[in-house]
Structure formats: structure tokens, C-alpha cells
Design a protein that fits this description.
Number of domains: 2
Shape: elongated
Distance between the termini: 32 Å
CATH superfamily of the largest domain: SPOUT methyltransferase, trefoil knot domain
Number of strands: 10
Helix content: 25-40%
CATH class of the largest domain: Alpha Beta
Strand content: 15-25%
Strand order of the largest sheet: 7-6-5-9-8-10
Structural class: alpha/beta
CATH topology of the largest domain: Alpha/beta knot
CATH architecture of the largest domain: 3-Layer(aba) Sandwich
Order of helices and strands: EHEHHEHEEHEHEHEEHEH
């Protein structure tokens, strides 16, 4: 098994499942993996990846995997018992002096939505996500599965005090934009800022009052009057695209 440097993250372990999630974790030097279990056919098919990363999976039966993670989980023949890579402090993130984009998720509790947002963030070059400790799930298999391997590409901090984290970002030169139906700006406005953090609230409740008050500007996504609102993950993808952060 690979040896990793100790990371400053929340203490949390879980069974990750599915090829995309597990192999991305194996390729991530910052991910501490306790154990890998796979079917014999998966071991032989991906032996080169295991060997390259000095990973030593244990070959097991399908029944063994089902007992570990439960029936009807799409494990694709491989699971890994992993430590969370969530950080516990904004200051532990790697910031750049210019062109730094962050997304803050306020009151988004659904693991599928969080995983989908992580995947979209990675796709559009947004590599930092901040989550509040309250009412947000710990890193788990559902998030990893929905992120489809992109969990390993994004820095994620789960902070106790979101307001304090926002204040820290402001001291680092970030502008704070909030996604809100009452916003006077379109997502295109976000392109003018080199260092910006965008707050996305839940589909129903939106941002909390203190979070809303911390914003320097509010952004609204223009949509048809026949539709009340967008799913948080869909809205996030539009905002990430508008940020124009993709680099080849």
C-alpha cells in the first residue's frame, strides 16, 4: 500500500466504490487508502495501475463486497476503505496570487448534488470548494460516486464558521459573489474578477442571512418565467462556465 504524507483533514473513513472513484483515489498521492478489495477480473484488468501506485488489493468475492457496502450499490467490482481528504481550515488550501476561483456551498445537504458540483467545478477549472460543518455531510461514498473521480482534483475545506472563512478570503483579496434571485448582475460579471468566491445556496432556502450579508455583489441567472428555480448543481455549472477558468 502507498505511504502518504499526513494531511490536515477531518477524521473520517468510509468505503468508496466504483472504478472512477477508486482509481482516481489510487492515483492521488494525497489520498490515504487503508485497504482495497476487488474481484479477480478487476485485479487482472487493472494490474498495471495497481503496480504503478504500489497498491496491493485483496481479491474477494462479489458477496464480500456487497456485505461491506450493502446490496444494490454499483461498485463495479472494486471498493476502497479510505480516509477523507476534506480539509478543516481555509488556510490549509493552496492559493495563487492571481486568477483564483472558489465556490462556497451554503445549505446544500444532498450528497448527489455536492458530488455533481465537485465534478462540474473540476471540469471548468474551479479547484477549491468550501463547505460549512453544519448541515453538510461528511465526505462519503455517495459524494465520491457522483463526483466520478473528480473528488481527487478539487481542494475541499469543511469549516466550522463559514462567516469567518469568508472574512479570511476577503483578507486574501477575494471578492465575494452570491447567487441570488434578487441579484442585479448576470454571471458574465464574474469574469472581471481575478480572485473571486461564489456562494451557492440550496434550491429552496438559498443563502443564509449572514452569508448573504457578507456578499460584495449578487448574481442572478436569467431563466424562463415558467421555471421557479434551477437545481443547485445545474446553477453551479452555469456559474463555473461563466467564470472562464478553464486552462489547457
Amino acid at each position: 500500500m502507498m505511504q502518504h504524507k499526513k494531511q490536515n483533514h477531518t477524521v473520517n473513513k468510509y468505503y468508496m466504490h466504483g472504478k472512477h472513484a477508486v482509481f482516481a483515489a489510487i492515483n492521488n498521492p494525497k489520498r490515504r487508502i487503508e485497504k482495497i478489495y476487488c474481484l479477480e477480473k478487476i485485479f487482472h484488468e487493472y494490474q498495471q495501475i495497481f503496480t504503478k501506485n504500489k497498491a496491493r488489493p485483496e481479491m474477494v468475492s462479489n458477496d464480500f463486497i456487497n456485505k461491506k457496502i450493502g446490496l444494490n450499490q454499483p461498485h463495479q467490482g472494486i471498493i476502497a476503505y479510505v480516509n477523507s481528504v476534506f480539509l478543516d481550515n481555509v488556510n490549509n488550501m493552496n492559493f495563487t496570487e492571481t486568477n483564483d476561483k472558489i465556490v462556497i456551498l451554503d445549505q446544500i445537504t444532498d450528497p448527489q448534488n455536492i458530488g455533481a458540483i465537485i465534478r462540474s467545478a473540476a471540469a471548468f477549472g474551479v479547484n477549491k470548494i468550501i463547505l460549512p460543518a453544519d448541515n453538510t455531510p461528511e465526505e462519503n461514498a455517495s459524494i465520491a460516486k457522483a463526483a466520478s473521480g473528480c473528488l481527487e482534483l478539487v481542494q475541499i475545506a469543511k469549516v466550522v464558521n463559514l462567516k469567518s472563512a469568508i472574512e479570511t478570503l476577503k483578507k486574501k483579496g477575494f471578492w465575494i459573489a452570491g447567487l441570488d434571485t434578487q441579484g442585479e448582475n448576470t454571471p458574465e460579471k464574474l469574469k472581471k474578477f481575478e480572485k473571486i468566491a461564489v456562494i451557492i445556496g440550496s434550491e429552496g432556502k438559498g443563502m443564509r442571512r449572514l452569508t448573504l450579508e457578507a456578499c460584495d455583489l449578487l448574481v442572478k441567472i436569467p431563466i424562463s418565467g415558467n421555471v421557479e428555480s434551477l437545481n443547485a448543481a445545474s446553477a453551479a455549472s452555469i456559474v463555473f462556465y461563466a467564470l472562464g477558468s478553464v486552462t489547457n
